[in-house]
Amino acid sequence: xxxxxxxxxNGVRVEAEVEPRKTLADFIREDAExxxxxxxxxxxxxxxxxxLLNGEAVRxxxxxxxxxxxxxxxxxxxxxxxxxxxxxxxxxxxxxxxQCGFCTPGFLMSSYALLQENPNPTEDEIREGxxxxxxxxTGYQGIVAAVKSVAGSAx
Amino acid sequence: MKPPSFEYFAPTTLDxxxxxxxxxxxxxxxxxxxxxxxxxxxxxxxxxxxxxxxNRVTGLDYVRAENGHVVIGALARQRAVERSADVAARQxxxxxxxxxxxxxxxxxxxxxxxxxxxADPAAELPAVAVALGAEMVVTGPNGERVVAAxxxxxxxxxxxxxxxxxxxxxxxxxxxxxxxxxxxxxARRFGDFALAGAVATLTLDDQGAASDVxxxxxxxxxxPVRVPEAEQVLRGERPDDDRxxxxxxxxxxxxxxxxxxxxxxxxYRRHVAGVLxxxxxxxxxxxxxxxx
Lengths: 155, 292
Ligand SMILES: Cc1cc2nc3c(=O)[nH]c(=O)nc-3n(C[C@@H](O)[C@H](O)[C@H](O)COP(=O)(O)OP(=O)(O)OC[C@H]3O[C@@H](n4cnc5c(N)ncnc54)[C@H](O)[C@@H]3O)c2cc1C
Ligand code: FES
Ligand code: FES
Hints:
By secondary structure, chain A is an alpha+beta fold. Chain A is built from 5 helices and 5 strands, in the order ββαβββαααα. In chain A, a hairpin with a 2-residue loop joins β1 and β2. Chain A is globular and about 45 Å long. Helices cover about 35% and strands about 25% of the residues of chain B. Chain B is globular. Chain A: It comes from Sphaerobacter thermophilus (strain ATCC 49802 / DSM 20745 / KCCM 41009 / NCIMB 13125 / S 6022). Chain A: This is (2Fe-2S)-binding domain protein.
């Protein structure tokens, strides 16, 4: 049986009727039509689906959309403002932190959450903070360098 | 993959949750942090007819110090417990164990109590519960009962919970004075489940001998296990390097039939378990000595 839910994604209210088994990831992609959030493994291992739920990084493939009823979600589409890259996006670009780009939305959201909590992380803290995200292309060095390059700089 | 369909309930009180669970019997599953259950649903390894989601139940996310215990409610997230000042002051072993679980985004959702209810034999927190002699507070249609950790973990993903019952909270005894602790593991990658791991606590008396020793292993059997053979070697003795080496050897020898799989053979797990017990006991001793 479908249920009516309403949540806020990147500041925009989204309402829909969903089956309880629909994951938040599928809701974001199919109902909210925000396809920046990616699905790699659908069982919690790769981190590609990472979004912010009420300010905390979570795997959107492991939460049902009905559970997020009333919540505030932030996805990768919420990073850029007025057509300007967020400093993290700019840093990913400048540090070759992506190749195919499939993992990038997840890495950006994990990095964003990390810097919210700890604005000036050490390299070890960056590696630990991003340990739940898998990248098959870059070898991670560029990603760590990108986060490091913005660490300590204010919002 | 996508999960099979299920009926979804989001009660707001524990009584309501218990009533729903009782009504649906073994067709229903509790949903807490979802970090173990939802992967199983997505992979269709579990197909419950109904999910009873605890996340809207209020007043279950507590972590508090109470009568010499640290008490953790069913909805306290691992990340919150990891950062709790009460946990850091009274039972730091819990926070150290949580840091070995997955990754920040997993710990933001996953609950301490859910990890205990799930009872993966390679999980850290069930081994900590067994080592410390934690108590599980279970609520069901017939009221509340308290189960000792050692009785609670039955076998692989199986605990002493009947259909209709919820694990309401876990009570971990606080660390006694002059006690050191350690949790160490070997995993294939940072954040993965352990191939094998060891938990130890060691209490020193005025003469510097071990008045209490606890050793538990995870990843080496179908449930977390205390290792009395290793504890005996040290109890009442000065925990010098030779004694600790003998305790580690006793732990290795006591492991009858550790699992063998693509990640590690039984012989490797047995060897690593011995090494880890030695490491954990040395670290626990250092911490006990430093605590004055
Ligand atoms: C990438 C990744 C890595 C991980 N690594 C580790 C690791 O290294 N070590 C580790 O220990 N865990 C690990 N986990 C699993 C851990 O994160 C889970 O949080 C934990 O095992 C289950 O807690 P949960 O709150 O998420 O429970 P859920 O997934 O919601 O539930 C798990 C099971 O317990 C039952 N249950 C939950 N709460 C209750 C309750 N209060 N009463 C009765 N039954 C209940 C459910 O019905 C279900 O059967 C990992 C998970 C992921 C996705
Ligand atoms: S798609 Fe969610 S963690 Fe891989
Ligand atoms: S850039 Fe291709 S997976 Fe990371």
